[in-house]
Sequence to fold (1063 residues):
Amino acid sequence: MHWETVIGLEIHVQLACDSKIFSSASTAYGKEQNTQASLIDLGYPGVLPVLNKEAVMMAIKFGLAVDAEIAETSIFARKNYFYPDLPKGYQISQYELPIVSNGQLFITLDNGTEKRIGITRAHLEEDAGKSIHDKFSDASAIDLNRAGTPLLEIVSEPELSSAKEAILYMQKIHQLVRYLKISDGNMQEGSFRCDANVSLKPKDNNELGTRAEIKNINSFRFIESAINFEVDRQKEILEQGDSVAQETRLYDSDLKETRSMRTKEEANDYRYFPDPDLLPVKISEGIIEKIASSLPELFDQKVDRYVSTLSIKGVDAIEIAKNIELAEYFEDALNTYNGNPQLLANWMLTEVMAILNKDKIGIANLSITAQSISQLTQRIDDGTISSTIAKNIFNQLVESNMSVDELIKDQGLEQISDTNEIEQIILTVLNENQEQKDQYLAGKEQVLGFLIGKVMQKTQGKANPKLVNDLMVKVLSNN
Amino acid sequence: MERFTVKAIRNMLAEKQISAAEVFDLYSSRIADHDRSFNAFITTDIEPDVAYIADHNRQSSSSGSELKGIPYAAKDIFCTQGIRTTCGSRMLENFIPPYDATVVRKLKQQGAVLLGKTNMDEFAMGSSNETSYFGPVNNPWDIERTPGGSSGGSAAAVAAGLAPIALGTDTGGSIRQPAAFTGITGLKPTYGRCSRYGMVAFASSLDQAGILALSAEDTAIFLEFMAGFDPLDSTSVEESVPQYSQYLEENIKGKVIGLPKEFFDGSLASPYEALVAASIDSYKKLGVVFKEISLPNIGYSVPTYYVVAPAECSSNLARYDGVRFGYRSENIEDLDQFYRTNRQIGFGQEVKRRIITGTYVLSAGYYDAYYLKAQKVRQLINQDFERAFESVDIILGPTTQTAAFKLGEKVDDPVSMYMNDIYTISSNLAGLPAISHPIGFFEGLPYGLQLIAPHFKELDLLNLTHQYQKETDWHQIMPKISMSKESNN
Amino acid sequence: MAITKSDIEHLCGLSKLNLDDEEIPIYLQQMTDILKMIEQLQSANTDEIIPMAHPLDMHQRLREDIVIDTNDRDVYQKNSLNSEEGFYKVPKVIE
Fold:
């Protein structure tokens, strides 16, 4: 029996609003427990919700970026259930009339083809608080700082056919929300969370199988192993002729397996009904147009622009554009740069990326400014310094307060490009290295590198390598 | 003992015949001396610092302190900062809100002084003030009878002269019916007129803060300051607040009042029918014109309400779980039992009944047939009113079927209790403002008349009522308050 | 649409209420009466009628995304009988 995997992803994105979705408390991460829970977040008697405008705008931005329909009228509904991290005993979410519906996203498969993944809906809702079960021996500890943080829940059609596709889709959404600046997408801090609905069906059978929902996936690594484990688990069950239970399962990253949660929550009837404390949200054509016209350049557009306008190689354009912050840094540097953009791109992808990886930091924490990078590559491009010297300067920039030009001047790092001067040094080197000179003239061409190296040594690396190369060959051939 | 209107007190203060502190003490003493007969108050030991400040600021009569020194009582459903707020429930027996309800804050800003928190049906669910954890309230006209509910304490306090005016809430008639049972004036404003922020929610799309007072005039004085847009309440309306007291003397000649045939179908017992007829005559003498109208779907009001209100309340009361506030049992290790026990002990029977009903009508398989259906019927009722108001200015009808019934008479028969709201509920469903004012007595018990107006036409209700009250004195008749035996409430 | 004892128990489960054994038959009878009264709704003709969730035909106002800092945790936790180190405590949840 040939089984096909069917996966749908539900991604919860914490929106980068300063205040909560229904109250004016701060959404800042990592604060001391319960210091950012207002009376409204705590569900006190008599309090009422008022909707955060920015959350609505961000949802619309997302909808537009995935070609979705933006609802002219959308409704908030109460999802009723009891849990200690849910202070009101209901979550304010959206049910029948979500703000965004019928969108799409394209993922590029390994073989280069594009696959369309439908986005059923995206809706606004409030986040719950956090429960910590191992803080006290006799009780669970509840921190409601997170309660009320705005979430956008993005639901895909069950159109993903493998863990690989799921990852591609998840990465695309992750990149998109960061591009749109509606979320920082920080999975460690919980701003980007994914649940996967996984089921199997026999090939050529249209009816979908029973699905299990896997929760608690908070990294791209985990989603692959979680889905793969689940597919194997379900396959085994189905091949034995049994049926898969519709249930919620948790992913255990240590054991690399999924296990069933207490099924109590499944028995829940959420009794959705429109929240009577909130009114229908009306979104006019005007608002939508205004937001559409202010959408930032998205990934695909950026890559195209880098390639066509800046003549940057496709693979490099993709590498830079993948990370919006890197791309913005790059574009910032480009603003003050007059040289070959590819050179700057190379520099970003080699030296800059190397430091970020070595120090495990994001570009926001890099102590070298975009201006400095721009100046540095400018000086390579205009021949003031060699790339070897540039690397030296780059390493200094991490600590130094001086500008590139100041460092060059201060340490006398200008490239030596005077042909006479270089020729003199070449003659000296050839004099000092008769043996190698003779070897070269006898036909051993690889000795050239040695001789050039000697010249570079004599000039502390400041000689223009290309000139040295050309002049060395010329001098030797004149011999 | 004499009952003083807010207007009278204001004049006495302005003319320095009495100080704010003296007014406060007068009412505090009355409460101390007489409330044991009525059990109208749950909390009374409140520091009257505002009254003393008001005395000092008498000189500066800048606007923004129109109610300086005027004492009032507030139904214990309004959150009052630092002052216990129980909602008549064991669940909140020791709850001290860290904030004021918006309407309380507004009155405070005007210098009004809180006398005490009044008794009420638990979480505003009831029509007789018999579901309170703090014991029933006795009607000052006959202490064996109910004052009505759920704002029974506020009504009894005002009727008995223990407070000149009181705040109440009205979800299905909870201000108007007690006003009718106690012979005072009770106003439910338009939905969204007064802020609901800080007013503990029962049924969010029906609840509205309102006033129980001795006259339309007093009601107008307080409404001016209570009403108004609040950014903290999404259902609050940005409609400007008229100076209601300026409209009381408007000419009512030629105003058209509609008499719904469904309200006058002969089901009212003849003594009450006679009282209503007499009040209609009084209005006719004032130049009002009457017209028969029809509200064909009004008969569905009670079932509609008893789907919508319990549904909303079942969700609104889910927050009472003992975790962050409220009744909490000790030594329970299982979370599920923790919740269940807290709520079993914290809530009374009527609340539990409504939560179960509400859960039922929202549950899978029943939502369409009940909740959705009820919201559609609600639309029908709303449309009936819209149609009616095309040809009339005001709608008139009884407030209640009878005068106050005896305590204990209906406690075991919820449906019979629910039918009490038959005349009042429809205006909550449509969000319309409505007032009840006294129109006479039957067998020594007061009886009330109800006027309903289009949205935001409180001024018409107050205007008409005031003109009626100029020509009659039903609203001035006070029950005999004696030093009665200690009631064990 | 007759309501049964197990319906009541299910509803109590959803709404986290306990009823004593003696109470259940009373509630059952009262719920039966209430539901019978509510049934009257079915005779209303609501074809083509849009459900009304609010008495006034308004739409939701939006609030500016501005933080108003109110860390009054210690004041609030005076109301909670069981909080420790700033956390609220509940019987242990087993996941």
